[in-house]
């Protein structure tokens, strides 16, 4: 049950400069969105949370676009944020980020969303120098605290054109959990519209120096890949013992950041915009239809992009100019990289199905959970 608090007490310790809001001691910043800051916080019992803070002045004065069956309009940003927090307050699932409390004091300068802490942070991080995503934590201490001596925590240092991608068995384990979360929010009539590695979170960090979990890919010759390290490590990780370790330590993936999410009416759950991140937006959203597009296949295409990136590092479609990117996505010429450690034919076909150019050919999240690749070894906790 989400707590809604209408009074905020902000205190700054004159000796240390440490700040607190109500029972939460604010720590270091861990992220920044377009309109908010995200910081770690500890409550009076030492529990870790992520605090998303919004400037009330910005919320009240900034107008943002809104699209529905009636056409385009603008609404105050505060209305959008209120809707995000309302949606999250009504969700409860092990694979959806949990909103714990909303602190909204009209006399206070800031609005706060208090979320469960996710020490593993986001699924993968963007590397601007090679225009790709890379997995894993570079903090060996954080890995040790979560995994103990069960994993190798030091030693792997990617080069400029190298990325850390997931071994296929770990990708299947985490992706299945994300599909569980997506099936749940779709059952609630919610379309996320911005599913990407940045908005998918982990309870504990990925051991990025342990080759049972990850593989190091050289993407300089994209779409031809090269790799270094133990090519058989992924096969070693495929057994029941490895999966049991993942379950035992509580490695869980969750869907977060519902800023673009909308509640849509059945049966088609239509959306009327291409809001979100363009690299993760399916072709039908760029056709400019006033009739809207079906929302659930829109999220499924995005998830196909996520799985592609988990295995290969790069986005399936990438161009610097948005109009060129949109044209490539609409053409639908999906190229799966060659080289590097072997990726199964089953997962390659699964990606093609999730990213079908025709929305009607994409499976629902529930059906995707029963795909032949997804059921290998069964990931469920």
From TrEMBL:
Q: Which domain of life is it from?
A: Eukaryota
Which Pfam family is an annotated match for this chain, by its short name? Answer: Pkinase
Select a single GO molecular function from the record's annotations and give it: ATP binding
Q: Which InterPro entries match?
A: Kinase-like_dom_sf, Prot_kinase_dom, Ser/Thr_kinase_AS
Looking at the record, the residues that make up the Protein kinase domain are 24-374
Q: Which GO terms describe its biological process?
A: intracellular signal transduction
Q: Which UniProt keywords apply?
A: ATP-binding, Nucleotide-binding
Family annotation (SMART domains)? S_TKc
GO cellular component, alphabetical, reads: cytoplasm
- Protein name according to UniProt: Protein kinase domain-containing protein
Provenance organism: Polarella glacialis (Dinoflagellate)
